[in-house]
Specification:
alpha+beta; Aminopeptidase; 4-stranded antiparallel β-sheet; 5 helices; about 30% helix; globular; binds coenzyme A
Length: about 160
Amino acid sequence: MEIIQPQKKDIQKLAFIEADCFPLAEAASYSDLKARYRAFPENFLIAKEEGKIVGFINGNTTNQTILEDRFYEDASLHDPSGAYMCVFGIDVEPPYQGRGIGKALMRAYIDLAKSRKKKGIVLTCKKRLKPFYESFGFTCLGQSQSTHGGALWYDMLLAF
Ligand SMILES: CC(C)(COP(=O)(O)OP(=O)(O)OC[C@H]1O[C@@H](n2cnc3c(N)ncnc32)[C@H](O)[C@@H]1OP(=O)(O)O)[C@@H](O)C(=O)NCCC(=O)NCCS
């Protein structure tokens, strides 16, 4: 498995993976992902197995320690000089889940943020995934005000 940055032509495939991984109300569309890739291509990582894209991670950069819902829809809110990198989504194709790919993507994203001298990583997650993120050192800041996809979210912060 290799973790690399995607090319523009890969974005369509990422939209298919996103649709497989998230409910419709939460999934970023092809056009959302294209807009994000245009604004912050440097914040996308993909996992490839035998040349096939099987997962990816992406998010903007901000000075805030809370991920706001408006970030998902408005790629122009990306602030490259911000101190924190957000995770909007971490996705592994269902047949490839449970093999360490999600963990490897998260570790690579953390390394990327550290290499850019950021202060940490910010995300929101559902209750069942808190232990997954806590295993990387994330702390739960409490219930989020997010109403993204009509679900209940928790604010998570990894401070380096
Ligand atoms: C969450 C997700 C990215 C994890 O990727 P993965 O490749 O399946 O995870 P890994 O194999 O690297 O597992 C890492 C650890 O997290 C745990 N874990 C993985 N998915 C989990 C889940 N849904 N609930 C609870 N724990 C989970 C695993 O048990 C494993 O723990 P271990 O190392 O102690 O065995 C993947 O399941 C996925 O794409 N889910 C759908 C989309 C989603 O919910 N993304 C996260 C919100 S942005």
